[in-house]
Specification:
Strand 5 and strand 6 form a beta hairpin. The protein contains eleven helices and eleven strands. By secondary structure, the chain is of the alpha+beta class. It starts with a helix and ends with a helix. It is 41% helix and 21% strand.
């Protein structure tokens, strides 16, 4: 382990303990007494407020209510942060505008050689959604819906929300318990429990016109919400077995609410159970497209007739 990496690890080790001794540092990091003492002195010089305890069982502890030293990054940590930035740009992420100040602070912590490495990586690496003619780390061309950041701030305070939704030219207000906020196929979606109708609903964030903390007095715990949902869940009407190729396709993409159960220890076979509302044409089309995406490495155990008819028609179009 390089010296800089070792010192960073020792600092984290120290921060997580009420006290420590030189002998503990020697054993934990397999270093000599002189190396341990030099590292502790360097950590003190960096500003970590260490206090020495005198006596036979003496050691060190971090002074309470003191400011810790600035964070130091290794070369690999710097590259990991930078590549994470690159991989997620143009993905409608919240707080996108904060990336500029974050990147400037990050660049201010590293050496010129490290900065040169990042510039080269920015020129060479391209990810999905990146404009190859403008591979700029601070590109703000794909901002998320402006209400998304407000939504996140509110749900951190309380999951009981009052949301106003634009639904087919009609404005409706729902009192919900937010279960998940997730990103799927380029859209942010809310999975929430409708407190009035006591059912699960999915709301596109793009359709929200307002969101506030709920003023409804009726409060539900997550456990209570899940209990109510389990009583109202629709009966399963699609059961399929997946082979290794279908599992591979499933991992590439699957609807957020769908999961599989592996049927052998090697995870090469699995079973999928779900409910398809055949009365909703959009859901019917979405599911049939997805089943075709899974490929031929599946065995159908149970399937609604409407889905089977659509699948057979689609297969005929592709393979006359």
């Amino acid at each position: 382990m390089k010296k800089v990496e070792r010192i960073n690890v020792i600092m984290r080790y120290i921060n997580n303990r009420a006290g420590f001794t030189i002998s503990e540092i020697m054993r934990e990091f397999n270093i000599s007494r002189s190396t341990a003492i030099r590292d502790i002195r360097e950590i003190e010089a960096m500003g970590m407020p260490l206090v020495a305890e005198v006596g036979r069982d003496g050691g060190y502890f971090v002074m309470n209510n003191s400011v810790l030293p600035a964070v130091r990054f290794t070369d690999t940590e710097i590259k990991a942060l930078f590549i994470a930035f690159m991989a997620t740009r143009n993905n409608q992420l919240p707080y996108l505008k904060s990336r500029q100040s974050l990147a400037e602070k990050l660049l201010g912590l590293i050496s010129e050689n490290q900065q040169d490495d990042l510039v080269l990586l920015n020129q060479l690496l391209l990810f999905e959604g990146t404009n190859p003619d403008n591979p700029d780390l601070l590109d703000l061309s794909d901002l998320p819906h402006p209400i998304l950041e407000k939504l996140i701030q509110l749900l951190l305070m309380d999951r009981h929300l009052s949301i106003t939704v634009n639904e087919e030219k009609a404005i409706k207000c729902y009192q919900i318990y937010l279960l998940h906020l997730y990103h799927e196929k380029g859209f942010w979606l809310i999975e929430g429990f409708d407190i009035k109708d006591e059912q699960r609903r999915i709301f596109p964030v793009d359709n929200l016109t307002d969101v506030q903390l709920s003023s409804v007095k009726k409060r539900l715990s997550k456990k209570k919400v899940l209990e109510k949902l389990s009583k109202r869940e629709e009966a399963v009407n699609l059961v399929i077995e997946l082979g290794p190729k279908a599992i591979s396709q499933f991992k590439k993409y699957h609807p957020f609410t769908v999961s599989i159960s592996y049927t052998n220890p090697f995870q090469t076979t699995a079973i999928l159970k779900m409910f398809i509302n055949v009365q909703h044409p959009e859901e019917l089309t979405e599911v049939t497209n997805w089943l075709l995406f899974l490929g031929g490495d599946i065995k159908v155990k149970e399937i609604p007739e409407q889905v089977l008819e659509v699948l057979q028609a689609r297969r005929f179009l592709f393979f006359p």
